[in-house]
Amino acid sequence: MKVAGSETDKLPGPPGTGAGDALGGWLHRQVVGSPNWMILPLLVFLAVFFFMPAIKLMLFSVMTQDPQGRIGTPLTLAHYVRFFQVPLYTDVLWTTIRISIITSVIAAILAYPVAIVLVRGNIMVTRIVTLIIIAPLAVSVVVRAYGWQLILGNGPTGLLNYVLLHLGLISEPLALLFSPVAVVVGSLHIFFPMMVLPLASALGKIDPNLEQAGRTLGAPAWKVFLRITLPLSMPGLVAGVTLVFSLSAGAYVIPALIGGPSSQMLGNMVEQQIIAVYDWPFGATIATILVLIVLAINALSMRLMGGRRIRENQK
Amino acid sequence: MSGKLTGTSAVMLYLITAGMMAFVLCPIVLIVIISFSDGYFVSFPPTGFTTSWYVSVFQNAEFTGALLFSFVLAVGTTLLSLLLGVPAAFAIVRGNFPGRALCKGLLLSPLIFPVLITGLALLQLFSSYGWSTVKLNLLIAHTVVTSPYVIRTVLTSLELVNPALEEAARTLGATRWQTFRRVIFPQIAPGIASGAIFCFMVSFDNYPVSMWLADSANTPVPVVLYRQIGTVFDPSVATMSSIIIGLSAVVVLALDRMVGLRRAMAM
Questions:
Q1: Global ipTM
Q2: Please, are residues B2 and B202 in contact by the beta-carbon 8 Å criterion?
């Protein structure tokens, strides 16, 4: 890597120029001389270890694998046709989309009260809530999924079943674990902070006087929320929903540990195809479909937010 | 008074928040309770109190080895991410090349890409070139996933630094390095610290990348734990989890002390 700064240090300016000019040029290069090159190490690193491998993997989805496991021509769309023709695969696709949508919607509804308290509550409360929201982020998903196994355990010794049995609400232990509901609950737990944080940051930017004015003018609390808080917090809501949807759609650990065969998601199917079946092109096809879903939702959200910013600038 | 919560809607908000806090804490607290359980199978309520699982877990070489491996991997990942990320963030804010917005998007893009697929793409890359140094592969893969966190936190703090201060330092004869060390660094230190802690956390906790690349000699702790969950049904799994929870708590407290949680999360 050529270091522009150190090079100019050693070159006192072209020969033959006056001392003043040389000093001026040197000063100019030192002060204004740009740190442009410093982006290169990371950019090259990511090009080699992220962009190129990711693109290559996606190209596998239109290639064929011969009996020796070599992947190459002829190019084909047969894997995509197979994916969309076999109900087993499309079921997993719909399960993934359904679980991700339900998780994001529930997270959004529950995150509003928490985010409002974070922004407007008293100091002690916001400090505790911040800690409780952020701290679990540092705990591995594997650990938290295990916690949900213990809570939702299907026998009478699962926490929830134990409590319900002792309250007399049920007479037989419920089959809670290994269901789509368990996956939604687990995903909600893992991704809830990703909804609360952008929402709180958007709510923090709203001038409290606006809500105050709404209330003074006689609007009930729900109307103040619908007409003032909700529209003004839209950037946070869109950011949160995008994050939660993308992360739940790409989940692997939660459906693997607390989802049963009926709630496997695209990520689990990718792993199966690669590790168990050793079908790289088909695994790559499922991976590509997952990536396209996530990129689409992110592009949509950027469009929504971009359009909004432009409209605001025009005002 | 304005902006504070009052009245019945405030009570509702506090109640829902309290409920969500209970929801968030429940699995974590339960794991810690079970880790002291005296039974041979995980069950609720715990049958008695014992600390013997902690003794046996710390004698379990597979677990302690994995803990050490994950720690070293996370430190290496953090250092490499900072080494690559801090200058890159600097170039985006202070550079003048065209396409800086695009570059910023590219550097942040591993954040929105499904991490599981990042790991798979790297498995493909490493196996096609026959790179069998698992430690190095894991270091590279984790750095791909964590470097955007450095970019994000350092960008945020760099954008707040006044360029006039740097120019003043340079005009007064400070070298590039002196300017960085004495003028810029103190101002972006909180950003670098939170970026570093995020890197450490994300690497230490990562499963979906490590699961593709780890082998039996190089196993990060989440991979060991995942395997245990499927095969061991005594409270030792809860004990291992509790130890990880304890370590995570230390990291969060460090973040709170060094930067402040709200600032680190850009709230």
A1: 0.90
A2: no
Asked whether residue A56 is assigned to any structural domain, the reply reads no
Inter-chain contact A209–B2, Cβ cutoff 8 Å?
Answer: yes
Select the residue of A117, A120, A246 nearest B3 (Cβ to Cβ): A120
Q: Distances in Å between the alpha carbon of A121 and those of A19, A54, A235, B212, B259?
A: 64, 44, 21, 44, 22
Taking CB atoms and an 8 Å cutoff, what residues of chain B touch A191? none
CA distance A77 to B229: 39
The CATH code of the domain that includes B119 is 1.10.3720.10
- Give the pTM: 0.88
User: Would the CB atoms of B122 and A49 count as touching at under 8 Å?
Assistant: yes
Q: Taking CB atoms and an 8 Å limit, are B14 and A60 in contact across chains?
A: no
Partner-chain contact B94 A146, CB within 8 Å: no
Cβ-defined contact of B267 to A204 (cutoff 8 Å): yes
Given an 8 Å threshold on Cβ–Cβ distance, is B20 in contact with A110? yes
Tell me whether residue A181 is in a domain: yes
Number of domains in chain B: 1
Q: In this structure, is residue A42 part of a structural domain?
A: no
pLDDT in tens, B219-256: 999 999 999 998 888 888 899 999 999 999 998 888 88
Our measurement of the distance from residue A147's CA atom to the centroid of its chain's CA atoms, rounded to an integer in Å, reads 22
Q: Which CATH number fits the domain that encloses residue A184?
A: 1.10.3720.10
CB contact at 8 A, A259 and A182: yes
Query: Is B154 a domain residue?
Result: yes
By the CB < 8 Å criterion, does A79 face chain B? Answer: no
- Distance from B64 to chain A by nearest Cα, in Å? 16
Closest-CA distance, B50 to chain A, in angstroms, reads 19
Buried/exposed code over B222-240 (b: 16+ C-beta within 10 A; e: otherwise): bbbbbebbeeeeebbbbbb
Q: Are residues A262 and A171 in the same domain?
A: yes
Domain coverage including residue A181: 83-314
Q: What is the DSSP letter of A191?
A: H
- Write out pLDDT tens, residues B51-100: 888 988 889 889 999 999 999 999 999 999 999 999 999 889 888 888 88
Closest by CA to B94, choosing from B7, B192, B184, is B184
Burial class (CB in 10 A: 0-12, 13-18, 19+), A231: exposed
Across A294-313, average pLDDT: 78
3-state secondary structure of A221: helix
The answer to whether residues A207 and A264 belong to one domain is: yes
Are A155 and A271 contained in the same domain?
A: yes
How many CB pairs below 8 Å do chains A and B form together?
A: 278
Whether A233 maps to a domain, the answer reads yes
Q: How many domains does chain A have?
A: 2
**Domain span including residue B224:** 60-264
Same domain, residue pair A16 and A165: no
Residue A25, classified by CB atoms within 10 Å of its CB into exposed (0-12), middle (13-18) or buried (19+), is middle
On whether both A23 and A97 belong to a single domain, the answer is: no
At A269, give phi and psi (nearest 5°). Answer: -70, -35
Same domain, A125 and A245: yes
